[in-house]
Design brief:
With 546 residues, this protein is an alpha/beta fold. The chain contains 18 helices and 17 strands.
């Protein structure tokens, strides 16, 4: 827990240096990389081949003859014979690197003889990126250059805004990372509600931010606006929320969403719908009895029934509702019963309703780390529950999005699963704006001016802390030497910075969280679904895993 500091404008300049806002104009390349000065003709003239360091090998359950190959930076997905896969594995010049932090899983072992494929097959393997003539050092530099250029393009794309009308919340959930703000009197100054003057200040600052991203004042773009807190949709915050929505709409199209506990959502009834607050994320932590033990009001009373009624209200008004269930070892067994509750309330059959689970992390002293799951452990537990209880199959998990993307490729509905240079928007274009005019990169690191990336002055001028801005926006698969060598980097993005910092003390280490296992398992499942003609699985939109 950070020591409390004043959020008033006076004195802040002494804590961190703020400078006029600007974005980098050139890709960042870390020092020490091998130069890549070889020409295409020189590469084609090289005879020595090796397996690319960025090839992933995926076993197919029940298929002893074939494997899947996935390539990190070309985006290739291919089914090949075990004979070809074994040849490729035999051509690797070094083992995959160990991560700085996280659970690492070795690739499948090499089995059988290693005959040479045909010339035609070798040519295809080269074309798809699986065989290269670059040395490992040259390929790492190539990967870094490709990733750095892509990351710079992400940095300079249109910004998205997270607005926090207040840090106040009407619930007292024991695992909340902001719990100290409401329970420690030293932080009571944070609990103000944003007024119209501050809203105007943020709106002015947004224009400056967009100009720094190269967008003209009259640019036609669809802006993203998400309300977060505290609890952003308290009844008392409605005037500010409505005003911000109206003013943003005068600038063009805006997609409005909220991450809310939904206890006072009925105060926003007329603002709910596809043209207003179009989507919400709400948390339910189990069946009513369990939820009412965890997500409680200050007097200890439960909140399930009120939240459930407001979920129904939102669905009836056409809002997309994503219900998140924070899961640990104590409440996961209740998911089958909770799936029945969803069906009984008439939510399950609605196309705009999507429940999913996320692991609880030990975010404060109230959480027993022994009761928590890693993401891989939760994935395994969910698969077992889905086998035993078909109704749980309607409840998603963040890794389902991996399966969905891979399935799109196998069904030839997409050419690539994407190229992630960073884990989330905190490292690219997300701006979290609070009720004091402070700007943060990540909503899990708010309320402490010492870690803000910037501040919007009363004049509307945007000032940034160069050190903090670069610390967050510069965390990517290029800046981390382990990620630069990792074959999963363009899918994982280096993992959550907050969880990495909690585990290691620094944002700049990776948080692998069993990603190799999770990736291979979901890609294999996607292929088996495709081969059997089974309907595509769930696609979970991850807002945040921390």
């Amino acid at each position: 827990m950070p020591e409390p500091r004043s959020t008033g404008a006076q004195g802040l300049e002494e804590m961190i240096r703020l400078e006029p806002f600007e974005l980098p104009s050139a890709p960042f390349m870390p020092p020490g990389l091998s130069p890549l000065k070889v020409t295409k003709a020189e590469l084609e003239g090289r005879s020595a081949l090796r397996a690319s360091s960025y090839t992933i090998y995926v076993d197919l359950p029940g298929n002893a003859d074939d494997m899947l190959l996935v390539h990190a930076y070309t985006g290739a997905y291919d089914r090949v014979s075990k004979r070809v896969a074994t040849y490729l594995r035999s051509m690797e010049s070094r083992h995959a690197p160990n991560p700085l932090y996280g659970t690492w899983t070795p690739e499948p072992t090499i089995e059988g003889q290693v005959p040479l494929p045909s010339d035609e097959t070798l040519a295809i393997l080269r074309e798809r990126g699986y065989l290269v003539t670059l040395t490992p050092e040259e390929e790492e530099t190539l990967f870094a250059k490709l990733s750095a250029r892509r990351h710079l393009a992400h940095l300079r794309s249109a910004p998205s805004y997270i607005v926090m009308p207040t840090y106040q919340c009407n619930l007292r959930c024991p695992y909340c990372f902001q719990d100290h703000m409401r329970t420690d009197p030293r932080y009571s100054h944070l609990l103000r509600v944003m007024d119209r003057a501050m809203a105007d200040r943020l709106l002015a600052g947004m224009r400056t931010i967009e100009a720094a991203h190269g967008l003209a004042a009259d640019a036609e773009l669809s802006r993203g606006l998400t309300f977060f807190g505290g609890e952003p949709l308290l009844a008392r915050s409605r005037p500010t929320v409505q005003y911000l929505m109206e003013q943003m709409r005068t600038r063009g199209k805006v997609r409005v969403s909220a991450i809310t506990n939904a206890t006072e959502l009925d105060a926003y009834e007329d603002l709910l719908g596809p043209e207003n607050i179009a989507s919400i994320q709400v948390t339910l932590d189990g069946v009513p009895q369990e939820h009412d033990r965890r997500r409680i009001y200050p007097d200890g009373s439960g909140s399930f029934e009120r939240i459930a009624n407001n979920i129904t209200l939102a669905l009836e008004r056409g809002v997309v509702v994503s219900v998140r269930m924070n899961i640990d070892r104590n409440n996961i067994s209740q998911l089958p019963a909770l799936a029945e509750v969803f069906a009984a309330r008439g939510w399950t059959g609605r196309s705009q309703f999507s429940p999913y689970v996320a692991p609880i992390h030990a975010g404060n002293a109230s959480v027993d780390a022994r009761s928590t799951f890693t993401s891989w452990q939760l994935a395994q537990a969910m698969e077992e529950l889905r086998r035993q209880h078909p109704g749980v199959g309607r409840i998603g998990f963040a890794d389902d999005s991996l399966q969905f993307k891979a399935r799109q490729i196998f069904d030839q509905k997409a050419q690539s699963a994407g190229f992630s240079t960073a884990f989330c928007g905190a490292h690219t274009t997300m701006y979290v704006l609070d009720a004091f005019g402070d700007i943060y990169a990540c909503w899990e690191r708010t309320g402490d001016p010492r870690v803000r990336i910037g501040h919007i002055a009363e004049s509307g001028e945007v000032l940034m802390s160069r050190a903090h801005l670069h610390a967050w926006r510069g965390r990517n698969v290029v800046s981390n030497p382990v990620c630069r060598k990792c074959r999963y980097a363009t899918s994982c993005g280096g993992g959550c910075a907050v969880l990495a910092e909690g585990a290691t003390g620094t944002l700049y280490k990776n948080f692998c969280d069993g990603y190799a296992q999770r990736f291979r398992a979901k890609v294999a499942q996607a292929y088996l679904e495709h081969a059997s003609g089974k309907e595509s699985g769930l696609n979970v939109s991850r807002l945040c895993e921390a």
